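Hi all, long-time lurker, first post. I run a small reading group and we've been trying to get comfortable going from sequence to structure in the token notation. Rather than ask abstract questions, I figured I'd post a concrete chain and ask someone more experienced to write out its structure so we can walk through it together at our next meeting. Sequence below, copied exactly:
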Amino acid sequence: MIPIVFLFPLLACSVLMTRSEEALLREKEKNIYILKKDIDINDKKLKKGGEVRIVIATGREWVKVYAYPVRFDSLKAERYLILYLFEDEFMNKKFAADLFDEKLSAVVEEKNSAEHEKRRQLKKK
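-- Answer (accepted) --
Happy to help. Here is the structure in token form:
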């Protein structure tokens, strides 16, 4: 009897981002953000202009960004999904920080960003 050997191609498990890119995302979680629009999920709301913190979850094929009000402890706060990106949205299915930042900035801005400070100064006048 002749043994038959099946050769399976080695499937490379692709990942959306590197560990260093994940570490950069973790840095974003330290900031306080201002919502640019109302978030309404299942009749629960986060109001535009509200201060929130974010939590970023990553998987092999996606990135999710959750927000919760700054006044709550991160472990007890109800989190709201504010951004969900799939690998197909990134060129060559590889994470791109500039695209992520663009999508995130459509929903929130850093509290102490230049743009936020400029608007705050205009409101004072």
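A couple of things your group might point at:
The chain has a mean pLDDT of 85.
The helical segments are 19-28, 97-105, 114-124.
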